[in-house]
Write a structure and sequence with these properties.
Helix content: 55-70%
Largest sheet: none
Order of helices and strands: HHHHHHHHHHH
Length: 245
C-alpha cells in the first residue's frame, strides 16, 4: 500500500513539474513577435542564444548590451520575457511609435537592431513627454499582456543599468547604433533625442547628402551660356561695354 501511495505521489510531482514547465514556456504575443522578428520560432531558445551571442561578442559595446539584457532577465525573471520587452520598447522609440508585430528583420546584422533599441531607450526615453510615454507604455504592455507599471519598471531598470555598465566611449558608439537603427525606419537620431544639436547635425548632413544629386541634375550647358563660335543674331541683346573710368 505504501509503495502504491509513493508511486502515485511521484506521478503527481512529475505532472506538476510538467505543468510548471508549460507555464514558464507560455510566452506573450509580444515576446513571440520579437523572436519572429529575428527569424526564431522558439522564444525561450532565442532569449538564451541571443543574449549569449551579445555577451560573447568581441565588440565591447555589443557585449555590454548583452550584459544589460542579461541583467533584465535575471532581475525580472519569469522566463526572460522582460529582456525581449526591452527590444520592443526600444524599437517602438526608433520607429516613432510602431510596436513590433511580426516580420523578419532585414538588417545585415540583427545584433545592430538590439543595440540600437537599447540606445534608443537611453537617448530617447527621457526626451518624451509624459503623454507620449504613457501611449508607448500602454502599447507595449498590451502586446506583452502585462501591466503598464511593469513596462515602466523595465525602462527605468535599463536606464540605470546602462549608466552603470557603459563607459563614455561605449555610449558614443551606442548613439551611432541608435542613429543607424533610426535610419532603418527612415528617421534620424534627432527624432529620437530631440536635441537641437542633433537635429541641426541631421539637417546639415541631409543637405550635403542632397548636393551631389542637385549638381548631377543640372544641364551640362546652361541656357545663359553661349559657345564661343556662335555669332549673336540681331535679336540678341549683347552686354553693354562700359567706357574706361
Amino acid at each position: 500500500m505504501q509503495k502504491m501511495l509513493a508511486s502515485a505521489y511521484s506521478a503527481l510531482l512529475r505532472q506538476r513539474g510538467k505543468g510548471s514547465k508549460k507555464m514558464i514556456e507560455r510566452f506573450s504575443a509580444g515576446a513571440t513577435a520579437v523572436a519572429k522578428l529575428y527569424g526564431h520560432d522558439n522564444v525561450g531558445d532565442f532569449i538564451v542564444s541571443h543574449i549569449a551571442t551579445l555577451q560573447g561578442a568581441d565588440n565591447a559595446l555589443v557585449s555590454r548590451c548583452g550584459e544589460v539584457l542579461a541583467a533584465v532577465r535575471e532581475g525580472f525573471g519569469v522566463g526572460g520575457e522582460h529582456s525581449l520587452m526591452v527590444i520592443a520598447l526600444g524599437q517602438t522609440l526608433l520607429s516613432g511609435g510602431v510596436v513590433p508585430v511580426g516580420g523578419v528583420v532585414s538588417l545585415s546584422n540583427p545584433v545592430t537592431l538590439t543595440c540600437a533599441a537599447i540606445g534608443a531607450i537611453h537617448y530617447g526615453w527621457n526626451a518624451l513627454s509624459e503623454q507620449e510615454k504613457a501611449a508607448i507604455l500602454a502599447s507595449v504592455a498590451t502586446i506583452f499582456a502585462t501591466g503598464v507599471e511593469s513596462v515602466r519598471s523595465v525602462a527605468g531598470f535599463v536606464l540605470k543599468t546602462i549608466k552603470a555598465l557603459l563607459s563614455r566611449e561605449n555610449l558614443a558608439a551606442l548613439k551611432k547604433m541608435a542613429s543607424d537603427g533610426a535610419a532603418y525606419f527612415d528617421r534620424c537620431i534627432g527624432d529620437i533625442t530631440r536635441s537641437i544639436a542633433d537635429r541641426s547635425r541631421d539637417l546639415y548632413q541631409a543637405t550635403w547628402k542632397r548636393l551631389p544629386d542637385v549638381a548631377s541634375s543640372l544641364p551640362v550647358s546652361l541656357p545663359f551660356r553661349r559657345a564661343a563660335n556662335v555669332t549673336p543674331s540681331d535679336t540678341e541683346i549683347t552686354p553693354a561695354i562700359l567706357p574706361p573710368q
